[in-house]
Specification:
251 residues; 15 strands; globular
């Protein structure tokens, strides 16, 4: 059966539109605050005010998040990367772009301590994952590491898995598992052994690894895992606020 030319053209155009949509990088809700304790705040892209960020708050490109003394939070991204910010830490998701064959994530980490577990993607995926601090840039390749930025701006990196290219004003060094790097405005050093602090961080990484692997399996099984989690948390917060308002009206 012959297909009319106009109908065939429409079908081809529709197919092209679907392919273009699949290829177009996602920049919206690519992650969320999956767990939190204490005072955690988020500043949305383009705004100057900080909002209280409970568990379930969505994170998009350009958003910043910070933790107060005694607080911490876990950030889960749709493609499986996991970040745990410890107290007195602050970071910004400068670039969050994801598509079927491309990932481009870049973060600025201004201060504090964090455990980073970048998801290792297939060889066919063009991946760029980096973390910038006041004194260094960490180019990440399927990696688990802890990052510490002191009040003076020095950056310490302890690598537990994968590879990190640590670069600063004094050059670049490639770190392998079990190594530690230190970057400052006037120096860049690498050690073949982890310090006592980073050894403790490695033990913390080993403890959390299975949980993160389980989360990644759930993400792989359900494309809408994070969206559903965020929506359920937002509904729970809205329901709580509604009940509180109703109680106030009864007084």
């Amino acid at each position: 059966m012959k297909i009319p030319f106009i109908l065939l053209s429409a079908l081809l155009a529709a197919a092209g539109t679907v392919q273009a949509q699949d290829a177009k990088p996602q920049t919206g809700r690519l992650g969320c605050v999956y767990a939190a304790s204490g005072k955690v705040e988020l500043r949305q892209a383009g705004r100057t005010d900080w909002l209280v960020s409970p568990k379930g708050r969505a994170i998009a490109q350009g958003d910043s998040i910070r933790t107060a003394p005694g607080a911490w939070c876990e950030i889960l991204l749709k493609e499986g990367s996991f970040i745990k910010l410890e107290e007195n830490s602050e970071m910004t998701a400068e670039t969050l772009l994801a598509a079927a064959e491309k990932r481009e994530f870049s973060f600025s980490f201004l201060k504090g301590k964090a455990l980073w577990m970048a998801m290792k993607l297939g060889k066919k995926i063009n991946s760029a994952f980096s973390v910038r601090t006041p004194s260094a840039v960490c180019a990440v390749r399927g990696t688990a590491f802890s990052l510490l930025v002191s009040t003076s701006g020095e950056t310490a990196v302890g690598l537990f898995e994968g590879e990190v290219a640590l670069s600063g004003a004094a050059g670049e060094k490639v770190l392998l598992p079990g190594q530690e790097g230190l970057a400052a405005p006037d120096k860049l050093e690498a050690s073949d052994r982890l310090s006592r602090l980073m050894s403790a961080e490695e033990r913390r990484y080993r403890r959390v690894k299975k949980r993160v692997d389980d989360l990644r399996a759930r993400l792989a099984a359900r494309e809408d895992f994070i969206d559903d989690f965020v929506n359920r948390r937002q509904k729970a917060v809205a329901d709580l606020e509604k009940r509180q308002q109703e109680k106030l009206k009864k007084r």
